[in-house]
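Recap for those who missed Tuesday's class. We walked through two folding examples back to back. For each one, the amino acid string is listed first and its predicted structure tokens come directly after. Nothing is annotated here on purpose, so try labeling regions yourself before you check the end of the notes.
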Amino acid sequence: MNEDPKDLGEDAPLPKESPPSLMAVRLPIPKLFHSVEKDAPFTHCLQCQRQLIGSGEQYVIEKVFRGTEAIIEIAMCLDCRDASGDSVSAESARALQVFFETRADFANRLMDLSLNSDEGSVNRWVDRCLFTGQMRDGLREYQVVALCQDEQIVRDFFPIMISGSVIKEISGVLSEQTKGWMNDFIDTHFGMPPEFCEPSGFRPVLI
């Protein structure tokens, strides 16, 4: 017979509360993910110019660094992000999925996020390359990606940092169609003359 909780008495143990999910935790967006051009947080989607701050909508920030200089910075609402994803070939989408699933340690990543939830931890999450463990300070090129909502970081699989050497590997698994679209997107919005990729041959890709 099922007992009514009211009949268990005052000493009955209280039900355990489920711990909040990672995505329920919000922390301020660190300066690493601010717009260098405006020296302030991103406010609008690069593609559709939708207001990001105060909209309640989630959006993605992606920045590409050469040394300490941000050479590309993108803030994009999820609608535009999804629309851009349609330009990625099925072959490339599958290759990216396999690359992340086989090279990234998801279990340790989520454990790290769950154990480090203070404001200062956001920078620690992107101090090392997700794939190689290389420290960001010693890298010539790298990319950082974050999922955000209003003026806060959403703790999901992101934020992440990927070293330039891994970006080259990722580029190597993409189809020519997808690389062509990414090059056109970057050239249209930012302009990347060929000499800018020398001598390393590094060419950013959209994660």
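Example two. Treat it independently of the first, because the proteins are unrelated.
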Amino acid sequence: MNKSHQEILVEVNNLKMYFPVRRGIFRRKVGEVKAVDDIDFTIMRNEILGLVGESGCGKTTTGRCISRLYKPTSGSIFLEGTEISAMSEKQLKPIRRSIGIVFQNPYTSMPPGQRVGNIIGNPLITYHLTDGTEYKDRIAELLHSVGLDPAMANRTLTELSPGQRQRVAIARTLAPQPSLVICDDPVSGMDVSVQAQLINLLDELQESLGLTCLFLTRDLAMGQYISDRVAVMYSGRIVELATSRELCENPLHPYTRALISATPVPDPVLESKRHYTVLPGEAPDPVTPPTGCHFHPRCPIAVGECHEERPPLREVGVDHYVACIKA
């Protein structure tokens, strides 16, 4: 996607989210967890941006900063040209409707004993979006849009399958017609067939409704499939950002290459001939991350400068950015 021909919906600049580490009887601050460590990116209107990385890399924290569930330590977040990163809760109240979130576990993010119709209808009432005569029709319309029978409005979450619960969560998120939808690994832990159905549903909704979506996932293949562009995150930093096709065909960062090499290929002949990149060690401790490039202790092509200098996220091709001095 060429940014010059699109409108920027979300702009993130120098975003940091540090959590204090406190110990002792007096709970003194002894350090910081650098969950998100100075990142920049944009989300264009009507696109899906995938944010991919292993557990603990900071992608969920990034999503919660953008939704302002967390107040960032520093940096700026612009939504439709308005800076929201430093807003108070009172100032955020009219903004909340513009950002919808689909959480990973629908059973804990929604009241399980409440009827589906009430769950989906709550945002309509909260934001005064419909009157009594249109209320039930709107709920039926939302259920139909996510592939559920409108008669399910009278059921509770305990009567639904995990896939159906997540569809209800998507319907609830869409109810106030948000400008941005953040999907936090919404198909994790589900059967493969259910994952495929939900991913295809999100893809169809993006096409029909023109959704703008930040899709957070640990699965690079899934992120590439559903996203227009993909940002790869490692240890609180974005290490590569490109279109899905470009990232698949021309990965430049060693970490991205390792992720792609670990992705199974549905062809036994090709799979038997593939070369796997096995990274030594583990992801660094976010309290005491390495100096320079956070990836250098595990990187197969690291040089001396990698230990000292933090590589900037620089453009090396059309809409292709990478944070590696050797790329």
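Answers for example two:
The mean pLDDT is 92.
The radius of gyration is 21 Å.
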